[in-house]
UniProtKB/TrEMBL annotation, chains A, B:
Name of the protein this chain belongs to: Glucose-6-phosphate isomerase
Pfam families listed in its UniProt record: PGI
Enzyme category, top tier: isomerase
Name of the gene this protein is made from: pgi
Family, as annotated: Belongs to the GPI family.
Length: 445, 445
C-alpha cells in the first residue's frame, strides 16, 4: 500500500448506497476528464501528464537544478498561487524540518508570494552574503506580486554579479511562446521552462513549475513522477466502487449535500502544513464558485487540538474532517523511563513518540465522530517523493471529479480577477481610469 | 490612533439599529466581566490584569530573560495551545521575518506543541552545537505533548551540562503551588513563574506564560503591558455605541445570526500568521460549544487571494472577513523605473511596495463586498510591542463579550478532554482499562 482511502468513519452520517446513486454521474465525470469533452476541457492536460510529460525538458530541469546546487547557497523561487504552493508543499514535506538552517545543500526561499516590503527587505538582508539563483514562475510575467519581486531581485542580481553572470543565474518558467516573461527570457537568454497551456496553476506542480525548485532542493523528482505515473494507472478506473480516488470525491459531495459546509484537512506532522495549503487552493479554487462549494480549511494536530479542538468537538455542526495520515515517521524517538516519574509519563516508557501520535489520532477520530463530525481517512505508508507524486495525482483527480459532481467547472477561476481589476484601477494603471474614479468614490463613503 | 474598528463595509448586510438592539445585552455582558458574576467568572482574572499584574514577578521575568540572552544561543519554549500561541504570535509579529537566522541575539524555538518525533529529532539536531535554555510552560505539568518534550529535552540538557548547570537553564511557568511541574521545580530549584488560577490558557499571553519567551526574544515587554493597560481604560466603557471593542463583538454576532458561519481573519503581512493562529484559538475555543459558534479561519493576503480568493469571491455565501490591517510597514521598498518595461510595471515606478499592498487591500474589500462578503476592519498604525499589547486586550475583551452574547460560557473548554481520554485509554494509561477495551472494539469495526 502506498495510499489508501477509507470512509468507514463517515458511515454514521451517510449510507453506502448513496455512493451507488452517484455511480453513473462519476462515470460521466471520468469520461469528461479522459475524453476531454467536459466543462473546462482545455485545461485537463494534467490528466495524462504523468505518462506524456516532455522527457527532454524533464532532463533539462535536472541539469539546471544541478547547476543551481553547484553554484548557489540559495535559490529564490518567485511565484504565487499555483506557481508557488506545490513546490513549497513538496520541499517542506520532504526535507528537514529546518531545511534552510541545516542539512540542505541549497537553501530555498520564496518571494513574490505577497506584497510585503518588510518580508522582501528582510529576505534581501538574509541573502546578502549568499550566492543565489532565481527561478521566476509566471505564465504571463505580469502578475503583480511576482513581477514586483522579480524586478527588484533581478536588479539585485545584476548589481551583484553583473548582467552577464546574472543571466546564468536566472531561470524562467513561463509560457512556451508568448507573454512578457518569455519575451524577456528570449532577449536576455535566460534558460526557460514551460508552463503548458492546458494545465492550470493549481494542477501544475508536476510540471517544471514545481519540479525545478523541488529538484534544486535536492529531492528526487524521478520518484515523484514515478509515483504520479503509478497513480495515473491506479486511479484510471471509472468505477467508484473500486476507485479510492473517486470514492473520496463522492463522499465529500454526499456530506456537502447534507449541509456540511467546511472540510478540514487534518495532519499530524507539522511538515505537511504547505501540503494542506496546496490542497486548500486545489479544492477551494476548483469548487468555490456559483455560490457553492465546501470551504477548505486545515488543522495541524495535535497542536490545534489545543486551539481548534473545542470547536471541532462541540461547536457548530457543519464540519467534515479528512485526515491525511502518514503511517511511519522519518525518525523515531523513544520515551524513556524516569525513576521519579513526577510527570506521570512512565506508562509511556519504552513506547515511541510516534506510537503516542498514532493513539492521539485514533482517539481523536473516535471523539470527533462521537461529537458529530464525519471522518475520512487518506493514508500514506510514509512521506517520500514517490508518495508525494501519487498523493498529488490522487487529490487532483478527486478534485476534478468532485467539482464535476458538484456541477461546476473545475478548471476556471472567474472570481480571482475582481480584486486585481480594483487594485489596478486604484493604482492608476493605464486603461482603468473610469473605474478609478468610481472606486475612489466608494472608498470615501 | 493605535487601534480602531470600522464596520462600514458590513452595512450592506445589517443595519446600525441592530447594534442598538444589543445595547442592554452588552451592558449586561460587560457587567459580568467586570463584576465577575457571569458564567465562568472564576476565569476573568485577565480583565484587570493589565493594571493588577504582579510587578515583582514581572521584574523577575526581565531578569531571567536577560540571563537567557547572556548565556544561550537559543531558548526552547515547551508548551501547547494557550501556553504556546501567544508567545509565538508576539515573536513572529514583532521580530525579523527570519529571526532565527539573522538579527536576533537569542533564537527561539518551540517544542511540545506536537507529538512529531521527526520534528523533535530535527530540532535536537539543530540545537546540537548551541548553548540553550528551556522554558517549559504547563499548568499541570502532565499535559502529554509538553510533558514528553520536556522529559526528552531535560534529559538532553542534563547530559550536555550536568545536573547542576542544567538547573540554571531550566525555567518553569506553572501553577503557583500545585501540580507535577511545580513539584519538580521545587525539588530541583528551577526558577518558577506563575500561571494565575483565574486566567485560562488562551487569555494568558500577558502573564509570564507569554512574557518570558517574548522578553528572551529581545522584545520590550514594558511596552506590551503599557499597551494593554491603555487598552484596559480605552475599552472599559459599557456603551456599545462608543466602545470599538464591543462593536466588534456585536457585529460578528449579528452577522452570525443571519447565517454567516465562517469568520476569516485577513492579514496582509506574513509575519502576522501566528497572531491569526492565536486569534483562532481565542475565538474558536471560547465560542465553539453547545453546537454553535462562528468557525474561525485565517487567510494571508495577497498570497491567498491566489488560492482561497476564488472561493471568497464566489463560493458558498457563508463568510465574513475581519481584516487586521497594519498601516505602516516596518521597512519600505520603492519600485524603480525600468526603461524597457517588458513587465508593464512602470505605472508603479516611484511607488512603494506598501502603497501597492494597500491598494490591493482596498480593491479586495470592494470586490469581496460586491461578492457578498461583509467586511470588518481592525486597523493598527503599526505593528510594535505597544500595539500588540492593546490588540491582545482588544480581542480578549471582544471575545468575552461576544461569547456572552452568543449565550455560551466564554471561559470553559469542556470538549478538549474527549480526545485525551480516548488517547490515554488507547495508550494503556492506568485507570482507563475499561475504556481501552471498548475503544479497541470500535477501532476494529
Amino acid at each position: 500500500m502506498s495510499i489508501s482511502f477509507d470512509y468507514t468513519n463517515a458511515l454514521g452520517f451517510m449510507k453506502d448506497s448513496e455512493i451507488s446513486h452517484l455511480k453513473n454521474f462519476i462515470y460521466q465525470a471520468h469520461s469528461w476528464l479522459h475524453e476531454k469533452n467536459g466543462a473546462g476541457s482545455d485545461f485537463v492536460g494534467w490528466v495524462d501528464w504523468p505518462i506524456l510529460y516532455d522527457k527532454d525538458e524533464f532532463a533539462r530541469v535536472k541539469k539546471a537544478a544541478a547547476r543551481i546546487q553547484n553554484n548557489s547557497d540559495a535559490l529564490v523561487v518567485i511565484g504565487i498561487g499555483g506557481s508557488y504552493l506545490g513546490a513549497r508543499a513538496a520541499i517542506e514535506s520532504l526535507s528537514h524540518s529546518f531545511h534552510n538552517q541545516i542539512g540542505q545543500k541549497t537553501q530555498v526561499y520564496f518571494a513574490g508570494q505577497n506584497i510585503s516590503s518588510t518580508y522582501l527587505a528582510h529576505l534581501l538582508e538574509l541573502l546578502k552574503d549568499k550566492d543565489i539563483s532565481i527561478n521566476v514562475i509566471s505564465k504571463s510575467g505580469t502578475t503583480t506580486e511576482p513581477a514586483i519581486a522579480f524586478r527588484i531581485l533581478r536588479n539585485y542580481l545584476e548589481n551583484k554579479y553583473g548582467k552577464q553572470e546574472a543571466r546564468q543565474r536566472i531561470f524562467v518558467t513561463t509560457d512556451e511562446s508568448k507573454g512578457a516573461l518569455k519575451k524577456l527570457a528570449d532577449k536576455e537568454g535566460y534558460e526557460a521552462f514551460v508552463i503548458p497551456d492546458n494545465i492550470g496553476g493549481r494542477y501544475s506542480v508536476l510540471t517544471s513549475v514545481g519540479l525545478l525548485p523541488i529538484a534544486a532542493a535536492g529531492l528526487d523528482i524521478d520518484q515523484i513522477m514515478l509515483g504520479a505515473k503509478d497513480a495515473y494507472y491506479k486511479y484510471n478506473n471509472p468505477d467508484v466502487q473500486t476507485n479510492d480516488c473517486y470514492q473520496y470525491a463522492a463522499v465529500r459531495n454526499i456530506l456537502y449535500s447534507k449541509g456540511i459546509s467546511n472540510e478540514l484537512l487534518v495532519t499530524y506532522e507539522p511538515s505537511l502544513r504547505y501540503l494542506s495549503e496546496w490542497w486548500k487552493q486545489l479544492f477551494g479554487e476548483s469548487e468555490g464558485k456559483d455560490q457553492k462549494g465546501l470551504f477548505p480549511a486545515s488543522v495541524e494536530f495535535t497542536t490545534d487540538l489545543h486551539s481548534m479542538g473545542q470547536f471541532i468537538q462541540e461547536g457548530k455542526r457543519n464540519l467534515l474532517e479528512t485526515v491525511l495520515q502518514v503511517n511511519s515517521p522519518k525518525i523515531e524517538l523513544t520515551i524513556e523511563e524516569d525513576p521519579e516519574n513526577i510527570d506521570g509519563l512512565n506508562f509511556l516508557a519504552g513506547k515511541t513518540m510516534d506510537e503516542v501520535n498514532k493513539k492521539a489520532f485514533e482517539g481523536t477520530v473516535l471523539a470527533h465522530i462521537d461529537g458529530g463530525v464525519p471522518n475520512l481517512l487518506v493514508e500514506l505508508d510514509q512521506i517520500n517523493e514517490y508518495n508525494f507524486g501519487e498523493l498529488v495525482y490522487f487529490f487532483q483527480k478527486a478534485c476534478g471529479i468532485s467539482a464535476y459532481i458538484l456541477g461546476v467547472n473545475p478548471f476556471d477561476q472567474p472570481g480571482v480577477e475582481a480584486y486585481k481589476r480594483n487594485m489596478f484601477a486604484l493604482l492608476g494603471k493605464p486603461g482603468f481610469e473610469s473605474e478609478k474614479l468610481e472606486l475612489e468614490k466608494l472608498l470615501q463613503k
